[in-house]
């Protein structure tokens, strides 16, 4: 605390404003001087989920939250705020408070506005129909907030895209749990001339063909997360696009290439229900559409299905990927897929393996390579890929539980990673039939006894 004791309060408030709202509140416990400083933060996050109390009814929790919001607004003294977030389900039941919050934020020239009226109990994997047809309507006062708003997030909140033409500085738009048709989407792109980041989460009523294009489109980041398409097909013509993240069923992409390629591609097809050789062919086509990319994240579905195609050894031409993230359960059926990407990324420098539960798609189909033994693949008769011996310098494994396949892959990387500089194993905090976190750490540390191919390897177990 001594390093902060001589700082003026305005500077302390600026520092606190960089903290999440809950963390800012905790600074009130540091000392007497800090007790009320957090109440001047310029990053305000009113989230009803922070007020969950298992010993109180939902109605009581909601009332406590609303009273807190009213008191905060009444006592706030700052003239401007940077970010304002209101997360409250069933907003029509508390319309006066909602309107006061929006008025409060607009009067202080808020730059980043988040209105989340979704319900945490909604099933995000339910694609049968709209989540809530009576979502809240964005007040007209927001459309008049010209030349100030830089980012806008609307969840379960209806809007008029033609009103967005007033937002001359709007660069980020995130929409969720709301109907977004083709006309609405087109109007959004036309009216937001400075838009650089667009995120669609749990949206519905989208037609078969979604066009992401427009004259002078400045879009750099596109996120589509579990949206309801009749048949997902995208035409993307965005010369500045550098980041594409998609979660849903396996789509068809038609991406107009730019000269420098994409910086980041994240693909998760965990909602897909079909697992076949034809889907593997579609994966290859999709890879060509997003090619080239520098960072790639793939899911367990891809790791399983890519091995069902004719070219299961690797991509031609190879990926120019330098950072690869594998979301995997380390199931036997994923091992060929993991090898596929190591072989397809000869310039790989960093590898991140995120371990977690994953759906096994081959259960309802005839799985390829059922006779393959992962121990054979990684330990007894391994194929040592170019990236492992020449470029791969850093590996991070998250959620390690010490399963045999996890151990095989870890041992392989230690044994053959000639230029490896750092391997970090972050053990899982969950209990399982294999033991507890202490057991997981002890298993991971056994890799220290393996002779490393690299003389400069730093091996860390957390």
Automatic annotation (TrEMBL):
It comes from the Eukaryota. It holds the Pfam family F-box. SUPFAM superfamilies: F-box domain, RNI-like. This is F-box domain-containing protein. Residues 1-54 form the F-box domain. SMART domains: FBOX. InterPro entries: F-box-like_dom_sf, F-box_AtFBL13-like, F-box_dom, FBL13/AtMIF1-like, LRR_At1g61320_AtMIF1, LRR_dom_sf.
């Amino acid at each position: 605390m001594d390093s902060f004791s001589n700082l003026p309060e305005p500077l302390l408030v600026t520092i606190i404003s960089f903290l999440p709202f809950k963390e800012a509140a905790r600074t009130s416990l540091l000392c007497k001087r800090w007790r009320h400083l957090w109440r001047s933060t310029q990053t305000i996050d009113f989230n009803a989920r922070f007020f969950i109390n298992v010993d109180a009814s939902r109605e009581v929790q909601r009332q406590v939250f609303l009273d807190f919001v009213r008191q905060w607004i009444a006592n706030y003294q700052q003239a401007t705020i940077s970010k304002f977030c209101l997360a409250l389900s069933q907003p029509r039941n508390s319309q006066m408070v909602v309107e006061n919050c929006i008025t409060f934020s607009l009067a202080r020239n808020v730059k980043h506005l988040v209105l989340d009226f979704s319900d945490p109990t909604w099933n995000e994997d339910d694609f049968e129909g709209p989540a809530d047809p009576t979502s809240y309507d964005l007040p007209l006062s927001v459309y008049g907030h010209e030349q100030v708003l830089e980012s806008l997030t609307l969840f379960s909140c209806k809007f008029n895209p033609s009103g967005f033409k007033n937002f001359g500085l709007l660069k980020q738009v995130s929409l969720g749990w709301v109907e977004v048709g083709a006309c609405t989407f087109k109007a959004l792109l036309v009216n937001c001339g400075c838009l650089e980041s667009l995120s669609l989460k749990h949206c519905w009523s989208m037609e078969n063909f979604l066009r992401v294009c427009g004259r002078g489109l400045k879009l750099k980041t596109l996120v589509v997360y579990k949206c309801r398409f009749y048949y997902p097909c995208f035409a993307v013509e965005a010369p500045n696009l550098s980041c594409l993240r998609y979660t849903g069923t396996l789509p068809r992409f038609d991406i107009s290439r730019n000269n420098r390629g994409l910086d980041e591609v994240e693909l998760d097809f965990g909602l897909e229900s079909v697992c076949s050789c034809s889907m593997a062919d579609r994966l290859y086509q999709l890879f060509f559409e997003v090619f080239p990319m520098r960072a790639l994240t793939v899911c367990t579905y891809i790791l399983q299905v890519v091995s069902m195609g004719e070219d299961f050894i690797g991509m031609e031409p190879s990926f120019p990927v330098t950072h690869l993230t594998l979301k995997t359960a380390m199931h036997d059926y994923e091992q060929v897929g993991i090898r596929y990407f190591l072989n397809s990324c000869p310039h790989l420098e960093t590898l991140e393996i995120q371990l977690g539960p994953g759906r096994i798609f081959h259960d309802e189909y005839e799985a390829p390579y059922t006779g393959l033994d992962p121990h054979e693949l990684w330990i007894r008769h391994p194929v040592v890929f170019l990236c492992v011996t020449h470029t791969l310098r850093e590996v991070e494994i998250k959620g390690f539980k010490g399963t045999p396949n996890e151990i095989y892959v870890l041992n392989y990387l230690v044994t053959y990673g000639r230029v490896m500089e750092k391997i970090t194993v972050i053990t899982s905090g969950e209990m399982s039939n294999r033991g507890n976190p202490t057991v997981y750490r002890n298993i991971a540390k056994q890799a220290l006894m393996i002779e490393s191919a690299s003389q400069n390897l730093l091996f860390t177990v957390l």
